[in-house]
Amino acid sequence: MREKPIRVAVIGAGVVGASISRVLSMFEDFEVILVEKEADVGWGVSKANTGIIHAGYDDEPELYPLRARLCVEGNRIWRKWAEDLDIPIKWCGSLVLAFDDDEANILKELFRRGLKNGVEGLEIVGAGEVKVLEPNASENVTAALWAPTAGQISPWDAVIALVENSVANGVKLHLSTEVRGVRVKGGCVTGLETSRGFLEADWVINASGLYADKIAETAGIGGYRIKPRRGEYFVFDREAEPKVTRILFPTPTPISKGVVVTTTVEGNLMIGPSAEDLAEYQRDEKGNTRSGLDYVWSSASKLVKKLPPRSMIIRFFAGLRPEPTGGDFIVRKYDEVHGFIDAAGMRSPGLTSAPAVAYMVLDLLRSDLGRELKRKEDWNPYRKRILRFFELTHSERSALISREPRYGRIVCVDEMVTEMEVVEAIRRGATTIDGVKFRTRACMGKCQGSSCMYKIAVILSRELGIPLWKVSVKGSGTEIGIGDVKALFEEEGECERSKETS
Ligand SMILES: Cc1cc2nc3c(=O)[nH]c(=O)nc-3n(C[C@H](O)[C@H](O)[C@H](O)COP(=O)(O)OP(=O)(O)OC[C@H]3O[C@@H](n4cnc5c(N)ncnc54)[C@H](O)[C@@H]3O)c2cc1C
């Protein structure tokens, strides 16, 4: 008879926690819960980044061994995972552009590192070849490092897909559940203290992004800190031209890979990020700054012949990198506390590395158990994303509308999102306007939601059976009812008013 399943609690439904959940869900040995403080998955660092699946030439293996190794491994794994999970991705390759001899020497160094890390297909190319690979690259480029294995992914789609597939394979998802501490008894983990009570666990995997050091401290693990490093971006309208077909990097700085010019998988030109170190207490500081955005614009302008006009910008945003002490990822277990594993300090290239981090966590668990794990015979590797009306031909659209009229009602005109797609997003777990947005792209077009947000709110209200004012943008505290209007509709308020009028 097999032993009782081992209860594993993964803290954080970002790309790292979601990847770990998926990998652990492959085995009968584990009973996995995924615990997330937000009302939905992927709303931490994983939703605001450049979305690049890096090739893996950036990191010196002697200095940052985990970053160097896991990036290349992650890049390879994403090829299969993105296909199995129907995640939007394009393998467009990247170019690091050099503008003088000093920068050309940096290319040689990156090339050498890439070879050490096992990156395939790297090549240093001259100005003529750059023109062919990227017609919009600046005329002043003298040489470039061409990395054909780099790709561009939709980072929030990736997390949603990983979580949907994990849940389909038995993982229990606890949303809106904040972990307040890890309980340890006699040197062993016993579970999690959360905002919704105690959750028992034999193992805790700490994948809590910007808060990983705080969570580790509650388990009695010290020794590292996480500091936020802000990166700001501009996103252009899908129709803005000219775009780029490759990911364009400058030569890197000591703290960042530099401001990138890229076209997202959805077809929007995007430029960024800046790199600004913030204080530890600024872990929620996601506002944009004039200086950061100016820096992004001037840096990006140097890489290309032309950027679209500023009037075509539809959005700017900022993300925070969780920079760990020492700079390398922290993926390890501890002798002093049995049952605690860190998957922390996942700064860039953490999105690329996440699947490889997940397999590393699996190995840590396996080595502790000291036995072979049993694969689930019915484990399902596949998941399909929500059908996109926008991507269909005219005849496919007509056929669909005649089967389901809700495909004929457009909710978001800019992104051509239909009522049925919104309903499907809600069926798959969206409970907020942002939840619908990240699953369907509604509100991501030119108007940024000003014309479709209300329509989505009405559908959410109807499908979830809640009053309209209780529909929220991103969970508790962000309900769309405003100020006194909201107070009027609160239950007590309603009683008071009915007393007054009776
Ligand atoms: C500007 C920028 C650009 C980047 N570009 C790239 C790139 O192009 N390519 C690349 O490979 N990497 C990139 N990265 C890095 C990549 O985004 C991160 O490594 C990755 O998203 C980290 O994922 P995570 O799951 O560790 O963290 P997160 O996505 O933050 O997930 C952690 C989760 O834990 C939850 N949480 C926190 N505390 C608690 C608690 N107490 N209880 C319950 N839940 C909790 C959070 O809400 C969050 O959802 C970039 C990062 C930034 C900021």
Set down the secondary structure blueprint.
Layout lengths: L5 E6 L3 H10 L5 E6 L16 E2 L11 H20 L4 E2 L3 E5 L2 H17 L5 E4 H7 L9 E5 L3 E3 L1 H14 L3 E3 L4 E7 L2 E7 L2 E4 L2 E4 L5 H7 L7 E11 L10 E3 L10 E4 L5 E4 L3 E2 L12 H14 L9 E12 L5 E4 L6 E5 L5 H20 L24 H10 L6 E3 L4 E2 H9 L5 H8 L12 H12 L18 H7 L1 H11 L1
Parallel strand pairs: 1-2, 1-13, 2-9, 5-15, 13-21
Antiparallel strand pairs: 3-8, 4-8, 5-7, 6-7, 10-11, 11-12, 14-17, 14-18, 14-19, 16-17, 20-21, 22-23
The structure holds flavin-adenine dinucleotide (FAD).
Relative helix content: 25-40%
Shape: globular
SS element count, helices: 14
Secondary structural class: alpha+beta
Q: Give the DSSP E fraction (strand runs of 2 or more residues).
A: 15-25%
Q: Give the distance, in angstroms, between the N- and C-terminal Cα atoms.
A: 68 Å
Radius of gyration: 24 Å
Question: What order do the strands of the largest sheet run in, or round the barrel if closed?
Answer: 9-2-1-13-21-20
Described by strand count, sense and barrel closure, the largest sheet is: 6 strands, mixed
Low-confidence stretches: 491-502
Average pLDDT taken over every residue? 94
Ligands in the model, by name, code or SMILES, are:
flavin-adenine dinucleotide
Total beta strands: 23
